[in-house]
């Protein structure tokens, strides 16, 4: 492979990593509107980054076999999970209890990370077919999604201070919007 071809592949994969990470950023922005400690933000970003490593890796390994069938299902499941999480956040924002129904810890963090990274699984399926470099792909996807998630969560905290008690409902609306976007692409 020539140097220009390797540079082209690096540039293409980097743009894909940032594009996939922008979903994590946007969703992190919504989730950041609930009160989170710095340690939670660190763990959430790291967990989403790990999911953005393993989901495309699994997708790339499965590649040709399931690409045409499973890519669509993964997107639908991701959209449904985001709708569920967003709806729960909105519902809990109108309850007396200050604690949200779904917190990004334990099983809630797994659901959150899975919903954010399912699209990277679908991309991994496609990249497995074209023979993209596995290590380079998963490293770029993991780094971009981790960094962008942290940025979204931190900005979400700032926005939360501006909107006060309505911030969780706004964050839920953001998650709902991305769920709808996944389920009903234009």
Give the overall shape, derived from the CA principal axes: globular
Order of helices and strands: HHHHHH
Number of helices: 6
Q: Roughly how many Å is the radius of gyration?
A: 17 Å
- Judged by helices, strands and strand pairing, the structural class is mainly alpha
Given as residue ranges, the uncertain stretches (5+ residues, pLDDT < 50) are none
What is the multimeric organization of the chains shown? single chain
Whole-number average pLDDT?
Answer: 78
Biggest sheet character: none
Percent of residues in helical segments? over 70%
Outline the secondary-structure elements.
Elements: H1 3-31, H2 38-62, H3 67-93, H4 106-130, H5 134-163, H6 167-183
Short description:
The chain has 186 residues and is mainly alpha-helical. It has one domain (10-181). The chain contains 6 helices and no strands.
List keywords for this structure.
186 residues; mainly alpha; 82% helix; globular; transmembrane helix; membrane; transport
Model description:
There is one protein chain. By secondary structure, this protein is mainly alpha-helical. It has one domain. The chain is 82% helix and 0% strand. The chain starts with a helix and ends with a helix. The mean pLDDT is 78. Belongs to the MntP (TC 9.B.29) family. GO terms for molecular function: manganese ion transmembrane transporter activity. Probably functions as a manganese efflux pump.
């Amino acid at each position: 492979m020539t140097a220009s071809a390797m540079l082209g592949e690096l540039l293409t994969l980097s743009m894909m990593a940032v594009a996939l990470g922008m979903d994590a950023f946007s969703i992190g922005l919504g989730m950041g509107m609930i009160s989170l400690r710095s340690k939670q933000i660190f763990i959430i970003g790291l967990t989403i980054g790990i999911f953005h490593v393993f989901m495309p890796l699994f997708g790339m390994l499965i590649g040709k076999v399931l690409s045409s069938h499973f890519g669509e299902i993964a997107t639908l499941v991701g959209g449904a999970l985001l709708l569920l999480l967003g709806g729960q956040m909105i519902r809990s924002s109108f309850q007396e209890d200050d604690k949200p129904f779904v917190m990004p810890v334990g099983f809630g963090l797994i659901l959150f990370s899975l919903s954010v990274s399912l699209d990277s699984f679908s991309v991994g399926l496609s990249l497995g077919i074209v023979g993209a470099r596995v290590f380079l792909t998963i490293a770029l996807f993991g780094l971009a999604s981790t960094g962008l998630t942290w940025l979204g969560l931190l900005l979400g905290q700032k926005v939360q201070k501006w909107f006060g008690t309505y911030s969780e409902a706004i964050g839920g609306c953001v998650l709902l919007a991305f769920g709808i976007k996944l389920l009903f692409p234009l």
